[in-house]
Specification:
Elements lengths: L12 E9 L4 E8 L5 E8 L3 E6 L5 E9 L4 E5 L2 E3 L7 H13 L1 E13 L8 E12 L15 E6 H9 L6 H15 L7 E2 L12
Length: 209
């Protein structure tokens, strides 16, 4: 019987180049040896990784933000998320920071909801999506927004309504879609308290405590 589990594997690379380096990401070109011995060129975006937070309040509503995303020319409803700016940073700390900065909210209970590669055919980005519960307003001053975040809106939407919006094609952000459907699946399975702890290992982006 075949075991269904993603496995680490790295095929031989004959040559590599980085033709573009941006502010946060870069583009790499690798000449990769295929199983039949042929060599094929593969271009992909190199990404530091991200975290996202599905913050669930006591009324079973998910905290959303609305933000302009220039590559797709849309304002998207999303869950709070951000880059892993510091190599080796604990993803939980990054998630807590993003929830504070984007929503001025803190949470008492944190779990790993799911881990995903967003677009593995063309980008090495890995995202850890957390479930945050026990929400309350954060102390201190609000984070000073800049760029697209200066136009950000906030909303809290019931889980059932979000599922309807996902299946109707009204919301498209990958972390929101994956996060809310994973939440519903977890509830229908072993329950939210059976989710992995917030400090569970993450081989895609190893970190120290």
């Amino acid at each position: 019987m075949t075991t269904i589990k993603d496995t680490r594997e790295e095929w031989e690379i004959r040559a590599t180049d980085t033709p573009f380096v941006g502010n946060k990401t870069s583009v790499r070109t690798d000449d990769v040896v295929m199983p039949d011995g042929s060599v094929v060129r593969r271009d992909y975006q190199v990404h530091p990784g991200s975290v996202a937070v599905l913050a669930l309040d006591e009324e079973d509503r998910v905290l959303l933000i609305n933000q302009y995303r220039h590559p797709v020319r849309h304002k998207l409803w999303e869950i709070p998320a951000g880059l892993l700016d510091v190599p080796g940073e604990n993803p939980l700390h990054a998630a807590q920071r993003e929830l504070y900065e984007e929503a001025h909210v803190k949470a008492e209970d944190w779990r790993v909801l799911t881990d995903v590669y967003t677009t593995p055919g063309g980008c090495d980005e890995a995202v850890r999506i957390f479930l945050a519960r026990g929400l309350s307003e954060a102390e201190g001053e609000r984070f000073a927004a800049e760029h697209e975040e200066t136009d950000m809106q906030h909303a809290r939407v019931p889980v059932d309504e979000l599922v309807r919006l996902v299946l109707a094609g009204d919301v498209h952000n990958n972390c929101l879609v994956v996060g809310v459907l994973s939440l519903v699946a977890a509830r229908g399975g072993e329950g939210l308290d059976a989710l992995r702890p917030a400090d569970a290992p993450w081989p895609a982006r190893p970190f120290s405590s």
